[in-house]
Amino acid sequence: MLGRITLFLKHHWKIPAIVFLILVCAFLYRSKLAGLIGVLHQSRGDYKRALEKTNEKNKKAIADIGRNAIANLEQQELRQAKLDKEITKLEAEKEELEEELEEDLERLAQEIKDKF
Predict the structure, then answer these.
(1) Tens-digit pLDDT profile for the chain (116 aa)?
(2) In whole angstroms, what is the distance from residue 87 CA to residue 81 CA?
(3) CA-CA 20 to 30 A from 19: which of 1, 79, 93, 112?
(4) Mapping DSSP to helix (H, G, I), strand (E, B) and coil, where does residue 12 land?
(5) How many CB atoms lie within 10 A of CB 32?
(6) How far apart are CA 27 and CA 23, in angstroms?
(7) 29 three-state secondary structure
(8) Dist. CA 113–CA 107, nearest whole Å
(9) pTM value?
(10) How far is it, in rounded angstroms, from Cα 51 to Cα 44?
(11) Closest by Cα among 60, 84, 64, 62 to 72
(12) What are the Cα distances from residue 91, in Å, to 83, 87, 100?
């Protein structure tokens, strides 16, 4: 068993050396590593806060767009109702004018008939 371990270390000496260097560096630079981890946590928190603010702004913008669209639709409906009333009024006036014109034509036809 000891022979297998020495044979493994002889051929793959880089793996334990890298593990040993990582442990030494982690021990020596513990405070810097903690500082880097703190910076990562802080940047992650800042990102979450910025994302929440952006989401709130987008929700407000969507709500404003929805309210504006509803208001515009209501105004359009009111304008359409007014235009419909005007159309019915103008159609009634048209019918009256057609009746007057027909009466005038009948009267003129009668006058011409009476003259001749």
Answers:
(1) 878 888 877 888 888 888 888 888 878 777 777 777 888 899 999 999 999 999 999 999 999 999 999 999 999 999 999 999 999 999 999 999 999 888 888 888 888 888 77
(2) 10
(3) 1
(4) coil
(5) 10
(6) 6
(7) coil
(8) 10
(9) 0.47
(10) 10
(11) 64
(12) 12, 6, 14
